[in-house]
Amino acid sequence: MKVEERKSLLERMPHVKGRLVEDACLSRLSWFRTGGNAELLFEPADEDDLVKVLRHLPSSVPITVIGVGSNLLVRDGGVEGLVIRLGRVFSEICMRGNVVNAGAGAMDVHVAKAAAKNGLTGLEFLVGVPGTIGGAVRMNAGAYGREVKDVLKHAHAVDRYGHIVELQPEDFGYSYRHSALDESMIVLKASFNATIGNEADILERMREISASRAESQPLGTRTGGSTFKNPEGMNAWKLIDEAGCRGMRIGDAQVSEKHCNFLINHGGATAAELEALGEKVRSAVKDNSGVELEWEIRRIGSPAEEGIQ
Question: Which domains are assigned to the chain?
Answer without folding.
Answer: 3-88 (3.30.43.10), 90-201 (3.30.465.10), 230-293 (3.90.78.10)
